[in-house]
Structure formats: structure tokens, C-alpha cells
Amino acid sequence: MSTAFKTVLLFGPPGSGKGTQGVAIGTLPGFFHCSSGDVFRSLDPESELGKVFKQYSTRGELVPDDVTIDICTDFLNKQVDAGKFNPANDVLLLDGLPRNVAQAQALDGKIDVVKVVYLEASDTEALVQRLKKRALDSGRADDADENVIRNRMQVYTDETAPVLAHYPDNVIAKIDALPTPAEVMRTILDALIPAIG
Description:
Layout: E1 5-11, H1 18-26, E2 31-35, H2 36-41, H3 48-57, H4 65-81, E3 91-95, H5 101-107, E4 111-120, H6 124-138, H7 146-160, E5 172-176, H8 181-196
Parallel strand pairs: 1-3, 1-4, 2-3, 4-5
């Protein structure tokens, strides 16, 4: 990436609706949604980066930060080359990245963060129930076990939440994640429009 992409970061604990909002807003003209999970799942297992990713994922290990950044950078460059993402006109919506402070530091200079959308919920139990419902609706096994859900939330609190401190307070928009998706989306867009204008 030669110039920093104008970027909005989507943050929030599991079940806060980051993916739902990212996909929905990503359909609007002028936005390009990039989920790190989708990027990993789209990797060609025979490519160089795909083989590196497989080495870690098959052992159940987290992909190292530098590899994660390389994979996502490579993906974004390919989207630009394919004409799917136009950095001159489109705002990048990053969902699931950065996951920790080291990744945030590695992305400095590659992305220009104009807004951090922080989906928060005062009621953690509501998020747990939302994830359990998602497990029933979509068959996601990682959402079916309440212990796994609570562990993922703890990992988020320990690793991802401190990333917020990496960015200035004036770019962070705290959004209540518990209303309906349409209401949440309207609140997000109200926060984004002045930042991306």
C-alpha cells in the first residue's frame, strides 16, 4: 500500500453485531467492507500465504501478527487491482483487525483511521443469548457452547479492548449494540458521515 487507506474500524465484543453492520454498510456506495475472518477463509490453500496460514490454523494456533497484516494487505491490494476497492473514493471498513496493540502499531501508516465504531453493550448476558441464538440459526458451533462464548469475550477484553487506547478519543464513536440492527446502523451512519465527508 503506497498511501494510507481512509479507514473506519469496527470494534466490539463477540455478538455485538460487527459482522452484520460491516456487511450492511459495505453494500453502500463509497464503502468497502473487509472482515479478517473472511480474508482468512478466502485464502488459496496452495498460495504462499495460504500455506503459512494453514501451518498455524491446523495446529489451532493464532496466526502471528506480521503474517496477519501481510495476508490482509495482500488481499486489499488484490481488491484494488481487481477494481473492487477504489481507495480514492471508497472508505475501508475493517472488521476484526487490528485485534491487538501490536497489530494496530503495524497498521500505522498503512491505514488512516478516521473513525473507530465501538459497538458496546452494557448487558453482557444479552450478547451471550444473541450468540446462542446465532448458533441455532446458522449452525455456528463456536457460538453453541456458553463457556466458549465467555472465553471469547474474555480474550476480547484482554487483547482487543486495549487497542482503543491506541487511537485518539475524538475518533472513537461509542454505539449501543443492543437496539435493532436498523437502529444501530442509523446511529453508526450518523457518526460516520461527518468523519468521512
